[in-house]
Amino acid sequence: MKVLVLGGTRFFGKRLVTRAVESGWDVVVATRGHSFAQLPQGVHHVLVDRHDIQSMGQAFRDQTFDVVFDQVGYSPDDARLSCQLFRGNVGRYVFTSSASVYEPQMIPLKEEHFDPRTLAIRYGGQSELTYPEGKRLAEAVFFQQATFPVVAVRFPIVIGEDDYTGRFRFHVERIQQGKPIGIPGKAAKMSFISADEAGAFLHWLATSDLRGPVNAASHIPLSATEVMDIIAEEVGQPPVISTSTREGERSPYFISENWTLNLTKAVEHGYRFTNSKEWLPEVTRKCMT
Q: Domains of the chain (ranges plus CATH)?
């Protein structure tokens, strides 16, 4: 199997690439070269601007792939580029979308709570749109215009020791240092997934018959305070909670309305997700060392 990974040199993209190589696939990783990563032996690394049609065309116009994994598509312009470039040249397209396409609700969110097939398309680049707008409109372009099979993975917050956003490490370090973390109200629950499982799920999708939007998350949603309790147990001291809303003190995991995902679609297609309480302690320990 020949696969192309757009992005793939950091966070759960690295884990996807490692699994693909271990499966014996022919793997091409395309990046701008801005972040250095030691790619597994045998990976073909191509420098390209994923957001530029000329750059992408020069690199891939005459190539065919069984699967394309798009880790760095953020806008309808990016989606339109892929629909044009890979027409007739790809067997399956796996787009990393986001649970941010949904509005928070009390009930677990199902894929049909946002239908990209009915959204009016307007074009624009990443800098012209908010992150949720960009993902929604990118999905709309893929599902209304692509001539190849597409699956859009709606991940929630992804947690790992190498998370470049620093959101999880923020909690670990402040609990270790005895510094306050702002929880300015009753914390609602949200879904999470580990970076390891995010990479594993993408890898699984390469050979699955699943199509369309799909939620992917660990079982057992947690509130910000529940996440901190798990961290505190590993650190060995309780968190210091404040009601602060100041940037740099307020928890980046605090939300006031539930934002959890219904996993029925993926589970019915055969995937078995982990439990968030199983892997959070290990990630905490890795952040402490």
A: 2-156+195-215 (3.40.50.720), 164-191+220-259+275-288 (3.90.25)
Q: Alpha helices, DSSP H only, in the chain?
A: 12-22, 53-60, 76-85, 131-145, 167-177, 195-205, 224-235, 264-268, 276-288
The answer to whether the CB of 45 falls within 8 A of the CB of 4 is no
CA–CA dist 128, 39 (Å, integer): 32
Per-residue model confidence as pLDDT tens digits over 238-280: 999 999 999 999 999 999 999 999 999 999 999 999 999 999 9
Instruction: Please give the C-alpha separations between residue 147 and each of 43, 67, 83, 135, in angstroms, as whole numbers.
Output: 28, 14, 7, 19
> What's the CA gap between 160 and 171, in Å, rounded?
13
Distance CA 77, CA 86 (A): 14
- Name the β-bridge partners of 154: 215
Supply the pLDDT for residue 106.
85
Q: Provide φ and ψ at 38, rounded to 5°.
A: -80, 100
Q: How far is CA 17 from CA 9, 59, 271, in A?
A: 8, 19, 19
Q: In Å, what is the CA distance from 163 to each residue of 192, 195, 273?
A: 13, 8, 20
161, two tokens: 């020791």
Sites in the chain below the pLDDT cut of 50: none
Contact 258, 190 (CB under 8 A): yes
